[in-house]
Structure formats: structure tokens, C-alpha cells
Design brief:
Oligomer: heterodimer
CATH architecture of the largest domain in chain B: 3-Layer(aba) Sandwich
Order of helices and strands of chain A: HHEHEHEHEHHEHHHHHHHHH
Largest interface: A-B, 26 and 30 residues
Number of strands of chain A: 5
Structural class of chain A: mainly alpha
Order of helices and strands of chain B: EEEHEEHEHHHEHEHEEHEHEEHEHH
Chain lengths: ~375, ~325
């Protein structure tokens, strides 16, 4: 056991010594990747220092069929929210529906006649959202943001006193709560960890095999376990630094406000990194070469974008895509990240995703270990 | 010399349909400098890799330094040093850092490791280069650094696989002398090479390996005498024409004729009166002769004879099936 620990630390120390001499690796791993993904997503989210709202500049028709004080105040409230800066109020309902889908407007919000009186009578009042079916992602976004904003809408005092606020307003569409750059933070953390970690582990092992340094380790009394653990320690430290960089940029530059503490974010991010490391070792055990590593990584990231709930909610996936998402351990890793960062769920309350992702990580490591031990010659040369 | 340091019994390695090493039976004594001689692809490196526990034999068994390579692989690794093209140092580290890393992995106590590193640096002239990255060294110095790392833990068995390739002649000779001294101190050395001259100079015994098989084992002298049916005559005869050489080539029983003006070398099998017959034949075609010497076969000639002649070797090398 002591030997395992000593060898593990020696291998980890060796990784650090090499890393510190490799300026390109330092630059790419700790600077370029975290900055690139954070900036690119942040820039696409409305630019630095401004509140991120993807619906802010989208042209949307606002049709007021009630022409009441409350419907007027609702329009003002939506405009001042920063989420709907391009509300156009000149349309009639039929003319708005006629141009919906042409790209002139992307949605129509209709306040029906009787909106104010229903509120005053303490009854449920509906507003109707017509969305562009050609833009499903955007439609969801508009719906979610609108739902959020009407909840925050403050009616006149006499109305509020009798109507129990706008909980009575229902919108005909449902979706999850959108939380500004917090979602961006989750995506960036996931992508950066996967991108960097897989390359560092699988690529590093492939290069070591080609250089003959892996064979050098294997003719020494060092165990395979020490090699795997040593590299894991090294990459966990890099992963932690990357998490801090992304988090710092997201919070200070783009105003992300994670709904959980720093330690939870670090652990959740490390969970994603660890499962990727396990997969990287498995790729190394299956003798994926340095060039093939780049190709595998490319497809891995694309695959995860499509099937793991990183960009598209798993619940929105259909058919085989949804089935694939259930067997990908990263799906559960991202779920942990989302639920902790976005809605502040305690890490250990997420039992199912935690069990799945930890189980998958152990499975990857054990499978890699067994292949390394059984097929020494495959990894030596 | 002490007891057996390496023993193999029917050691075989098969890659797919290709048998790289075929039923190798070998006994190498402790402190012996044993050469494995053979062309590229003959199975030398595969043999070394099996004995180093880097690759698993397909069949057969072997012990190295008294430990079974399958059952006691970790003990084998603790007792061997390896210098081979496929086994390298970390090029982004200095020589000193590499040696420190491996001293930890070999469980050397810190004080002993530092002393040993200094000692090796001194022996190999690394003192001024200790802080230089391995990457920044010439290939010769890199090889020396690899030898340092292989000797760090004072192994009982040292595998030197094609160790002189890439070395300048002086370094190669110095390494040969150093290896000889190591053996005198009791270290068993397996020296694999395809350079025929090396084992003849330094090895206690040589195993001739060809097409995966161990063809013959013996001292260089024994190997040469085992092909004593070879008769070699060198004739000092300047300015021979191509027509004259063709004529000599067509003499009965002549296996091989080579000519580097003015030395004509004629090799025959089973020809006791070769010198006399060659003289007569040369005089008959009007060749001027300044002198005649009868020679012993070299290890290279013994190798060629043992492996079935030059044509057989050419066929083997050209077949392309000898590679993995």
C-alpha cells in the first residue's frame, strides 16, 4: 500500500514536472480552453457586463385585445424587464398570425379581452402566446422568459389586493426556469472538462506509448494502478484550476450567480472530469493512437452536445436519442452540474445521477486496469 | 561465473500467424556477457521484451535472475535493467530528474539514490549535463542516459538491445569495455545486435538467432570452428578485370568471391586444398599474384553459413514476413 502511494505520487510529480516545461500544454489546458469556451458562450450571450437575455432583441408582436390599464402595465413591464426590448404593438391578432413563421416576428403575445376584469374578479386570466414552430428552441426560450416575467409583474395595489398577484395568469406553454449565464456556466464547465481531460489522458498515454516512456515505466516495478492514479491526481489538479478559471470568468465577467457553494461546484465539475479520465484511460487501453485521440475527442464532444442534455434537455430528446442519453454517464454528470449550479440542489441529494456517474467512472477505471494488466504488450509499444 | 541467470524452455511468441520467436531454449550463466546475434526481425527484440515482462510469451517458460517471468514478473522487473529503442526516458525532464524518478520507483533510499546518481553521472561524464533536458542531448548521449537509468538500481541482469546503433565508434568501444567490466562484477548482460563484429569482440557466448529460431549457441571461437568446413583464401592480386572475376566465380566448389582491389577473397566449402587449387586456376588465366593467405572464417561468415547462406538471409529479409 505504501509502495502504491509512493509510486502514485512519483508518477503524479513526474507529470507535473513535464507539464511545467511544456508551455504549449499550459497555455492550451489552463488558459486557451477555459477562456475560449467562456468567452465564446459569453459573447454569444449578449456581451460582457450586460444581463444575458437571449430573447431581448427578438421581434415579438404584442396584441392588446383588452386595452385596459393592467394590460398596458403588462406591456410596460415586459419592455422594461430587458427580456423583450423589441415588442411591437401595432399588430392585430390575425395580421400577426399571418406573418408568424416568415421571420418578421418570432412570436405573438395576445392579451385577451376581459384580462383586467378577470383579475379583478379574482379569476384566472390567460394570456396567449403564439410561437413560431420553425424555431422550436427560440419558442421555448420566449415562453420560459415570458412566464418568468409575468410572475414578477406587479399589478396596481387595488388589483393585487384582490387577485393574489399574477399567479392567476397562465401561459399556454410550459418549460424550465431559465437562469441567465448560470446555464452558460454549466455548459462551459462540462465542455472544458471533457475537452481538456480526455485529450490529456488518452492523448498523453498515446504519446507515452509512442515515445517509449510507458514501456520504461512498465519495466520498472511500478504497478499499473500507480500509473493510473498518478495521472488521475495530476489531471484532477488541472481540472480544478480550469474550474476556478471558468467560474471566475463567468461570475466576474458575465454575472453568473450559481445557486450553490464553491465546494459543490468544484466537486460536481471534478465528477465530470473523473468520468472523462476513466474514458480516456479506456481509450488508451484500447490502444487509440495520438491522431485517433483527436478524432475520438471531436466525436465525443459532438455526441455529448447531441445526446447528453448538455445543450438540449434530455426530456426534449425523442426516440433513440433519448435512449442514448440514458446510457451516457456524462448525462448524469451534467445533470449534477445543472441541478447544483442552477437550482441549488445539495450534491448528495442527487442520489441516482451520483450513483450512475460514480459507477460508470469505477467501471471505466476497472476495465482500463484489467486491459492494461492482461494486455501489457498492447500498451507498451 | 555463478549459476544460470536466465533460463528459457520452449519460449515462443506468436503474433497472429507469424511466429516471432520459436521454441527458444537458452541458458545464460550469471555474470556472462551473452550475445544474441541475428538480422533485423530475427526475433531478438521480441525475446528481450518477453524476458523483460513487457510482452507475454505465447508458449513456454522462462526465469530471469531466478524469477519466473509470468508468475514473478514484479521480482523480475526489480532485478533487470533495460536499454532498448522502445524503452525511453522522459525527454521533457533533465537526466537528473529522470534518474530521481526511477530511483523512487525502484525504492532506492534517498541517500543511496543520490550517491548512485552521482556515481553514474561521473562514470558516464554527465556531470555538466545533469541539468540538461534529455531532449537537448545528442542521440549518443541519450543512449548513455538510458544506460545510466538502467543501471541505477544495480540490476542483476542487464538487457542491451542494439545498444551501439547510433553511437560513434569511440563511444561504442567505451560501452563495450564498460559492459565487460559490469560482467566481471557479476552482472549478466544480454547484448543483442545485428553487427557481426561486436559479439566476436566482447561476448563470452553468442546465440545465433534466425527467423525466430536459436540456430546455434557457443563461444565466438566455437561458432567459427563449427563451420570449419569453410575454407577461405585471400590473394593479393591487383587490377583484376570483370572477365577474370567471372571466370574465378565459375570454378568448381567456389561459394563466394569478393574483390576489393587488390584483395581477392575466395570462400569454399569442403575444400582442403583450396589455396593450391585457386593459385593454379588464377595462374592459368594469367592473373598476377603478389601473395596468398589462408584465413579462418569470421563470425559473420559463420553466421551466414549457420543460417543457410546469403541467399537464405536475403530471402528472409526480402520476404517482409519477418516483421511484426
Amino acid at each position: 500500500m505504501l509502495k502504491l502511494l509512493r509510486d502514485t505520487l512519483a508518477v503524479a510529480g513526474n507529470e507535473f514536472r513535464q507539464f511545467r516545461r511544456n508551455r504549449t500544454a499550459i497555455l492550451i489546458s489552463l488558459v486557451v480552453l477555459p477562456l475560449f469556451f467562456t468567452f465564446s458562450l459569453g459573447a454569444g450571450s449578449g456581451g460582457a457586463t450586460t444581463r444575458f437575455s437571449p430573447t431581448a432583441s427578438v421581434p415579438i408582436a404584442f396584441i392588446d385585445n383588452d386595452l385596459s390599464i393592467d394590460s398596458g402595465r403588462l406591456l410596460q413591464s415586459l419592455r422594461s424587464s430587458g427580456d423583450f426590448n423589441n415588442l411591437i404593438s401595432g399588430y392585430r391578432e390575425d395580421s400577426a398570425l399571418a406573418v408568424l413563421g416568415t421571420g418578421e416576428i418570432y412570436a405573438a403575445i395576445v392579451v385577451p379581452a376581459g384580462f383586467q376584469s378577470a383579475l379583478m374578479d379574482n379569476m384566472t386570466s390567460n394570456i396567449v402566446l403564439y410561437a413560431d414552430d420553425g424555431e422550436p428552441g427560440l419558442s421555448d426560450q420566449i415562453s420560459l422568459t415570458l412566464q418568468n416575467d409575468v410572475r414578477n409583474f406587479s399589478p396596481k395595489i387595488e388589483v393585487q389586493a384582490t387577485t393574489n398577484g399574477f399567479t392567476q395568469v397562465e401561459i399556454i406553454q410550459k418549460g424550465a426556469l431559465f437562469t441567465g449565464f448560470n446555464l452558460g456556466l454549466v455548459i462551459v464547465l462540462g465542455v472544458v472538462q471533457i475537452f481538456a481531460t480526455f485529450y490529456e489522458i488518452a492523448g498523453g498515454m498515446a504519446r507515452e506509448r509512442e515515445d517509449g516512456t510507458l514501456a520504461r515505466l512498465l519495466v520498472s516495478p511500478t504497478g499499473i494502478g500507480s500509473i493510473l492514479l498518478g495521472k488521475t491526481i495530476f489531471d484532477s489538479v488541472l481540472g480544478t484550476i480550469r474550474t476556478l478559471t471558468v467560474l471566475g470568468l463567468a461570475v466576474f465577467l458575465y454575472g453568473a450567480r450559481p445557486n450553490t457553494d464553491l465546494a459543490t461546484i468544484m466537486v460536481a465539475s471534478l465528477i465530470v472530469a473523473l468520468v472523462t479520465m476513466g474514458f480516456g484511460f479506456l481509450a488508451a487501453a484500447l490502444r487509440v493512437g495520438p491522431r485517433a485521440v483527436v478524432i475520438v475527442e471531436f466525436f465525443l464532444v459532438l455526441f455529448l452536445f447531441a445526446f447528453s442534455g448538455l445543450m438540449i434537455d434530455r426530456e426534449l430528446l425523442r426516440g433513440i436519442s433519448r435512449e442514448i442519453s440514458y446510457i451516457l454517464p456524462w448525462t448524469y454528470g451534467f445533470e449534477i452540474l445543472r441541478r447544483t449550479v442552477l437550482v441549488g440542489r445539495p450534491l448528495f441529494s442527487l442520489t441516482s445521477p451520483l450513483l450512475f456517474v460514480v459507477g460508470a467512472t469505477i467501471l471505466f477505471y476497472v476495465a482500463s486496469y484489467i486491459i492494461f494488466v492482461l494486455a501489457r504488450e498492447r500498451i507498451s509499444f | 561465473m555463478s549459476d544460470s541467470s536466465i533460463t528459457t524452455k520452449g519460449l515462443t511468441k506468436v503474433f497472429g500467424h507469424f511466429t516471432a520467436v520459436d521454441s527458444l531454449n537458452l541458458n545464460v550463466r550469471g555474470g556472462e556477457l551473452f550475445g544474441l546475434l541475428g538480422p533485423n526481425g530475427a526475433g531478438k527484440t521480441t525475446t528481450v521484451r518477453m524476458l523483460c515482462t513487457l510482452i507475454e510469451p505465447s508458449y513456454g517458460s522462462a526465469t530471469v535472475a531466478g524469477y519466473d517471468i509470468r508468475e514473478q514478473a514484479s521480482d523480475v522487473r526489480r532485478n533487470i535493467g533495460v536499454v532498448s529503442d522502445g524503452v525511453s526516458l522522459y525527454k521533457d525532464l533533465t537526466i537528473e530528474e529522470n534518474l530521481k524518478l526511477f530511483s523512487t520507483l525502484y525504492d532506492l533510499p534517498r541517500a543511496k539514490a543520490e550517491q548512485r546518481i552521482l556515481e553514474l553521472m561521473e562514470i558516464f561524464g554527465f556531470r555538466e549535463k545533469a541539468k540538461r533536458l534529455v531532449n537537448a542531448l545528442s542521440s549518443g548521449w541519450q543512449k548513455k542516459a538510458m544506460i545510466c537509468a538502467a543501471l541505477l538500481h544495480e540490476p542483476r541482469v542487464l538487457f542491451l538491445d542494439e545498444v551501439t546503433s547510433g553511437l560513434d565508434p569511440q563511444s561504442a568501444i567505451a560501452l563495450q569495455d564498460f559492459t565487460r567490466k559490469l560482467c566481471d562484477q557479476g552482472v549478466t548482460v544480454i547484448w543483442t545486435t545485428h553487427y557481426m563484429g561486436e559479439p566476436e569482440k566482447i561476448c563470452d557466448r553468442v546465440g545465433v538467432v534466425f527467423a525466430g529460431r536459436l540456430v546455434k549457441v557457443g563461444t565466438p571461437s566455437e561458432l567459427k570452428h563449427s563451420v570449419s568446413e569453410l575454407s577461405i583464401v585471400e590473394v593479393d592480386s591487383p587490377g583484376l578485370s570483370t572477365a577474370q572475376l567471372d571466370k574465378i566465380q565459375s570454378f568448381d566448389n567456389v561459394c563466394n568471391v569478393s574483390y576489393k582491389d587488390p584483395v581477392l577473397r575466395v570462400t569454399c566449402e569442403h575444400h582442403d586444398d583450396l589455396a593450391e587449387d585457386v593459385m593454379k586456376a588464377l595462374l592459368a588465366i594469367g592473373v598476377r599474384i603478389r601473395g596468398v593467405v589462408t584465413k579462418e572464417p569470421t563470425l559473420e561468415e559463420a553466421f551466414i553459413s549457420l543460417t543457410g547462406g546469403e541467399e537464405e538471409i536475403d530471402r528472409f529479409l526480402e520476404s517482409g514476413t519477418h516483421g511484426k
